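INFO  loader      accepted 1 record
INFO  loader      residues=169
INFO  predictor   begin
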Amino acid sequence: MKRNCIQKAVAFTGISGSGKTSVIVKIANILQDEGYKIAIIKHDPKDKAMFDKEGKDSFKFSQTKADVVVTSPFKTTYFKPKPLDIKAIAKMVSPFDFLLVEGLKSLNLPRICICRGIVDEGYFDISDTIAIDHTIDKNILPKGVKLLNLNDTNQIVAWIKQNAKEMKV
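INFO  predictor   done
INFO  writer      dumping tokens
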């Protein structure tokens, strides 16, 4: 497939354990199979992600509060001990065709709320569409809300292609 010239972004939201990561992985794989370059940002609001294991050199380096880059023949990991805004992060991972963002509710991006098992109405006002599976009773959802089938990743990909927001990076 021909590469898209326009970089676009979309966000995913939902309660912990709703399946956001699983959906993003499936979507990323589909889009990459179609020839698109994908970048992913995951919000870690409780700062639980670790940079290597305690006692390892890279972990010790990260504890100095310096910017640390660990590179190998297969990947590069960049650790910065301060938050960056979305544009700075997007610039770091550019070029991409689609940027998939997990969380970061304050970003002004088209947003898919993932609901599996439990519905948290607090996400409705910040979401453009809701992806549900059979565990959710449609009657408890707001009237007129755009619904996606959580188990139909092709439908979700089509929504993303149509609704993702162009990013100026």
